[in-house]
Amino acid sequence: MSPNFWIIDDDAEIREALTAMCTILGYETLPFDSPTKAGQALLSGSSPKLIFLDINMPGVSGFEFLKFVREKDRWSKIIIIMVSSESEETQVEKAIRLGADGYVFKPINFDELKMAIRTAAKRRASTSGL
C-alpha cells in the first residue's frame, strides 16, 4: 500500500513525531523536508489522501505550496492540514482562505491531531476512505 499521508516539514523531529502518531492511527506516511520535493512527487503522479503542511519553511512556504495544490483540479480532493507554532488568528484565517481543511499547533498533541484529521476529512466531504 502506498503512503496515504504526506508530512511536509523542514523540522526532522516534527516529521518523526507526526509519522509516529499517524502510524498509531493506522496511516502510512511519506515525509518530505521541503515543499519543492513534495511538489515534484505530485507532478510525477503521486497523490496522498492528506498532507500535513508546515507554514514556515525556507524557500517555498507552506502557504505557497497550499496555493499551488489548490490551483489544480486534479488535487482538489487532497485534505490539507496546516502545522505551525504560529497561533495568530490571521495565520489561521489565511490558511483557511487559501484552502486548508484544518490547522494544528506545535507542539502537536495526539488527541488534537486525531480531532484535526476527523474535522478536516468532514470539511473536505468529497474525500472518502479515512
Folded structure, characterized:
By secondary structure, the chain is an alpha/beta fold. The protein has a domain at 34-123: Rossmann fold (3-Layer(aba) Sandwich). The protein contains 5 helices and 5 strands. It has helices spanning 12-24, 35-43, 62-70, 89-97, 110-123; strands at residues 5-8, 29-32, 50-54, 79-84, 102-105. Strands 2-1-3-4-5 form a 5-stranded parallel sheet, with helices on both faces. The chain is globular and about 30 Å long. 29% of the residues are buried. The mean pLDDT is 92.
Write the layout of secondary structure elements.
Layout: E1 5-8, H1 12-24, E2 29-32, H2 35-43, E3 50-54, H3 62-70, E4 79-84, H4 89-97, E5 102-105, H5 110-123
Parallel strand pairs: 1-2, 1-3, 3-4, 4-5
Q: In what range is the share of β-strand residues?
A: 15-25%
Quickly give the CATH architecture of the domain at 34-123.
3-Layer(aba) Sandwich
Q: What is the CA-based Rg, rounded?
A: 13 Å
Helix-strand topology string: EHEHEHEHEH
Mean pLDDT across every amino acid position: 92
Helicity range: 40-55%
Shape: globular
Tally the beta strands.
5
Question: Could you say what the CATH topology of the domain at 34-123 is called?
Answer: Rossmann fold
Biggest sheet, strands in spatial order?
2-1-3-4-5
Please identify which CATH superfamily of the domain at 34-123 we are dealing with: Response regulator
Low-confidence spans: none
Instruction: Please give the largest β-sheet.
Output: 5 strands, parallel
List keywords for this structure.
130 residues; alpha/beta; Rossmann fold; five-stranded parallel β-sheet; 5 helices; 42% helix
